[in-house]
Amino acid sequence: MAVFSSPKLKQKLFLLRQQKKRETFHYFWRSILVSCLTGSLLWCATLPEWKIQQPKQVEIEGNFLVTEDTIHVLLSLSYPQYIWAIPTKNLSENLESITPIISAKVTRQIFPSRLRISVKERKPVALALSPGQVGFLDAQGIWIPANFYSHSATNFSLPTIKVVNFQPDYRSAWVEIYRLITLYNRVKIFEVRWQESHNLVLQTELGTVYFGSPSFRLEDKFKVLAQLKNLPDYVKGSSVAYIDLTNPDIRLIEKYPINSKISP
After folding, report:
1. Which of 102, 108, 98, 90 is nearest to 62 (CA)?
2. How far is CA 172 from the centre of its chain?
3. Angle at 122 between CA 114 and CA 104, to 5 degrees
4. What are the POTRA domain coordinates in residue numbering (predicted)?
5. Cα-based distances in Å from 33 to 21, 38, 44
6. Element (H, E) at 236
7. Are strands 133-137 and 143-145 parallel, antiparallel or unpaired?
């Protein structure tokens, strides 16, 4: 049985074949274009311009006491290295792993290729002596080993306060002590010494001050100490041996006898 197609059907089939050819042609050239662009991008990405080739391409800001050499050691970067391949999050975590640095942010600069590092440091507010150790304390009682500042590029001035016999258990007490030192600052304090956990002794411009337990009315003791700023004017001709403020309601001031020889 013969089947005869109408002229309209033939025309429609012809148009469909033409459309398919055009689509195949466009797909072919689109694939070539995408391949060329991809290849060009890959080629560009492997150019030396996209590499971190030496330490001077690493820009560091925010460090005042921690040296750049210390930061480079912590980064442990190998050179050369493509900027895309550098694990910025891991580098930030490496820097934050040392106590002098509170936070660190590592970002990439694509062109020209740079690695930007911004750090925020802890501020040492006291020289700290612990059995067998020397370091620093910040206002939050974080212990910072002294070796981090031994080669500081800046003129590192030692804090004026010395903390003796510091223990990790005293951290919360130190936070409150330092807050009160800065709040009631009329009398200069040079040393904070723990004789034991319940016996605090201060060396001040007025002499030795016994505070006793830091957990008992500590702020009242600092208030009384600030009120004694002019004490030397009232003890002329003699020197203060010590001041006992273990009970801030009873101010015991022991003086050396007039013209007595004070042993060093």
Report:
1. 102
2. 20
3. 25
4. 56-122
5. 18, 9, 16
6. none
7. antiparallel
Sign of the CA dihedral with 153 first, then 154, 155, and 157 last: negative
Q: Which two tokens stand for residue 154?
A: 């800046």
3-state secondary structure of 215: coil
Q: What pLDDT shows up at residue 262?
A: 41
Superfamily of domain 126-255: Cell division protein FtsQ/DivIB (3.40.50.11690)
Question: How far, in Å, CA of 202 to CA of 222, rounded?
Answer: 11
Between the CA of residue 203 and those of 137, 160, 164, 214, 242, what are the distances in Å? 18, 12, 11, 15, 9
Q: pTM for this one?
A: 0.76
Q: C-alpha distances in angstroms, 253 versus 21, 206, 242?
A: 107, 11, 6
Domain boundaries, the chain: 51-121, 126-255
Quick one: three-class SS letters along 155-171? Answer: CCCCCCEEEECCCHHHH
Do the beta carbons of residue 116 and residue 107 sit within 8 Å?
yes
Distance of CA 174 to the CA centre of its chain: 19
Q: Which residue has the higher pLDDT, 32 or 212?
A: 212
Residue 40's contacts (CB-CB under 8 Å, 6 or more residues apart) are none
pLDDT beyond 80 at 98: yes
176 pLDDT higher than 50: yes
Q: N- to C-terminal Cα distance for the chain?
A: 132
Mark residue 57 as left, alpha or beta (left: phi above 0; alpha: psi -120 to 50; beta: remaining): alpha
Fold held by 51-121:
Ubiquitin-like (UB roll) (3.10.20)
Q: How far apart, in Å, are the Cα atoms of 144 and each of 42, 100, 195?
A: 46, 6, 22
